[in-house]
Amino acid sequence: MQIPEQFLPKLNARRVTIPLISPLDEQEFSNHFARETPFLIEADLSSLLRSTLSQIQKVPKEQKIKTFDSIPYREIREGLFHNYMDYVEHAPSNCLFPEGFDVVEERLESVTETKFRHYALSLNESLFPEIEGFRIPWIEERNYLLNLQSNFFQTHGITSPHWLFIHPAFSVSNAHYDHDSVHTAIAQLKGRKKAYLISPEHHATVQQEQFPRLPNGFNDFSNPLIAQLPCRDMELWEGDLRENQVLFIPRRWIHYVVSETPGMSYSQDIVNSSNLSDWLGSLFKTRI
Ligand SMILES: O=C(O)CCC(=O)C(=O)O
Ligand SMILES: [Fe+2]
């Protein structure tokens, strides 16, 4: 089934297709990564999928999880993990959240009226310990964050680099960029997503006050009024993220991601020589 119009970005920008590259060696990969423009690669992610599926089997019946309607969220709900899995796999697409999930937090100041389908927010190492060992092809040991002890992040109040997404069809992460100048790799273990990216030089272009905005200040790309936003000189990089592909999102690139089918992704924050000083600077700033 095609993604319904209500979940797609309405920007009238110049469309650029995110390239799918097949690097032959480390040097070629590094050269492409260093450009800081988005790209896709093919990769065998079957062992990560197998590990995720076996961990799902081990989640206790009484385990609760939180879900949210989008990044950034209007509301957070909480309920049983097993009801969530049932919703991901079987609920019709007009069902916005899983059975028995009640609101535990609401952001009433949110301008946008759009209601997206909920997806899981809290699928971290406490539930899926094996994700600490997940590695992204070509990046592997070059990601400094993976050399830190796993308890380092909790001890220092730093976000863990490992994010697991088990998503229903048509869940949306609205316009945002990732914390602390990290680069991000999204590995699609199962199912499909579409991604839309905008370079950091256009942050102001998509934060215009006269148009509907999200709680994070960016315009709500899904709102039909956004079709009028003046952005003809801006490039909107778009790409299909298919099973066994990895999407690289450079630091501070705005991204909007919508799932096309139910599925699973593993996302890893990356800090290497290119963004180490930005990352450190950002951590320091938030602590003084
Ligand atoms: O896949 C998504 O829905 C959003 C992922 C994302 O924003 C990220 O990994 O940084
Ligand atoms: Fe993100």
Brief rundown of the structure:
The protein is of the alpha+beta class and 288 residues long. It has five helices and 14 strands.
Oligomer: single chain
Q: Which class do the helix and strand fractions yield? A: alpha+beta
Strand segment count: 14
Reading the helices and strands in chain order gives EHEHEEHEEHEEEEEEEEH
What is the overall shape? globular
Descriptive tags:
288 residues, five-stranded antiparallel β-sheet, binds 2-oxoglutaric acid, 5 helices, alpha+beta, binds fe (ii) ion, Jelly Rolls
Which helices and strands, and how do they pair?
Elements: E1 14-17, H1 26-34, E2 39-42, H2 46-58, E3 64-68, E4 75-80, H3 81-90, E5 102-106, E6 119-120, H4 152-155, E7 162-167, E8 172-176, E9 183-190, E10 193-198, E11 235-241, E12 245-249, E13 254-259, E14 263-270, H5 276-285
Parallel strand pairs: 1-11
Antiparallel strand pairs: 2-12, 3-4, 3-6, 4-5, 7-14, 8-13, 9-12, 9-14, 10-11, 10-13
The protein binds 2-oxoglutaric acid (AKG) and fe (ii) ion.
Commentary on this structure:
It is a single chain. By secondary structure, the chain is an alpha+beta fold. The chain has one domain (7-285): Jelly Rolls, CATH 2.60.120.650. It has helices spanning 26-34, 46-58, 81-90, 152-155, 276-285, and strands at 14-17, 39-42, 64-68, 75-80, 102-106, 119-120, 162-167, 172-176, 183-190, 193-198, 235-241, 245-249, 254-259, 263-270. Strands 1-11-10-13-8 form a five-stranded mixed β-sheet, with no helix packed on it. β3 (64-68) and β4 (75-80) form a beta hairpin. The site of 2-oxoglutaric acid has 12 residues, from β7, β9, β13 and β14. Fe (ii) ion binds next to loops.
